[in-house]
TrEMBL record:
CDD domains: M48C_Oma1-like. GO terms for biological process: proteolysis involved in protein catabolic process. It holds the Pfam family Peptidase_M48. It comes from Nitratireductor pacificus pht-3B. One of its GO terms (molecular function) is metalloendopeptidase activity. This is Peptidase M48, Ste24p. Its cofactor is Zn(2+). PANTHER family: METALLOENDOPEPTIDASE OMA1 (PTHR22726), METALLOENDOPEPTIDASE OMA1, MITOCHONDRIAL (PTHR22726:SF1). Residues 38-236 form the Peptidase M48 domain.
Amino acid sequence: MLRSIMPRFAALFLAAVHLLVFSVPPATAQQGIPVVRDAEIEALISEYARPILKAAGLSRSGIDIILVNNRGFNAFVAGRRIFIHTGALMEAETPNEIIGVIAHEAGHIAGGHQERLRQQIQRAQTMAIVAALIGIGAGVAGAASKSGELAQAGVGMAAGGAEVARRGLLGYQRSEEATADRTAIDYLNATGQSARGMLTTFERLAGGLALAGVNVDPYQISHPMPRERIANLQELARNSRHFDRKDPPELQLRHDFMRAKIAAYTQGAAAAARLFRSDPNGLAARYGDAISTYLTGNPAAALKKADALAAKLPRNPYLQELRGDILIKANRPQEAANAYAKAIVLAPGTPGLLQVGYGQALMATGKPDLVRKAASELQTGLSREPEFANGYRYLAQAYGQLGDVASAELATAEGHFHSGHYRDAKLFALRSQKRLKPGSPGWLRAQDIIQYKQPR
């Protein structure tokens, strides 16, 4: 009896809590989440998020925004991280739509919804287990009395109790979603931004359900229905004096560049062209075309297109980054390094990812003095972006060219560690430690990797 009831309970319960599998440790990719790293997109999303996080009181809370390579229009929170699908970034036609998404997710973090959700799950789990045990007791009593009806009632009580617990949990989640929606409008008002983008997002979701011919039981989902959300928020949104405010043209252009880049990298040239078919000669369409030309292996034509765009937008660092990528593929590493160096000067903040690209180009020259500089640039870039696993591969190659085997093996260990390949990481850390001076910073870092225990 126990084996026949508990799987049924487990299936019902897991259906309610499936979103909690995104409990993401530092090496996000090891959990099967396909993370995207891109200096241009990350800088733009950080700019979107900065005023919202400040309004939410989260600007000093170490909130990270992670890009997930997924075509779906979705975002979610895990710990102190906001995950946004590239599909959402590509489909959103204005910055304001994504800013509304970020405001909603910030509302979850600021409201402590995850911690309370964990408490609700524990309560729901207890309710379901108690119901299952009562059902088992009834089933055993029925078997002892040879009453098939009583035994069947026991199964029904167990399954029914789990269903009550699941519906209660889903109802709690729906209330928290509604709270996050209202809080998001407060953040948008506080930062002088429109809530129109939020309404546009919900209208898109509602239209998608209608087009799909989906009949949804509102009591079986964890979010309010899109039409319900629109009705609840429309008056609040339209009463704001910022409702008709539009995104600045320069911000809109950067948003369109981001959409073009995502489309070209994830869905190909045709997708990028479709996005901007109403303005095929516009800058965003041309950017997508230049990236697509580079990706299809025609560096000469791609460079010509990128140069033309850079002449139009000489202060755009990411056009210089694209030029660097193209020149690397064209086997012109010195020119690529110059393009990356220019990108670093033009980019805001401390662009660690661009420094990694710069180091990669310097290393490709094969000149000993530039390879030494490459190792230094790569090390600096990775100190700012320690979870960028691919960067450690370039760093290991640079140390290998310099004959520093111990540092090359430690860099390889770091790459495996941040990719979630702990067994390989420990192996290379052991190999590097044998060549390093005991007690040195490198030796101690290798020891940390060797002693690391993967969290459950």
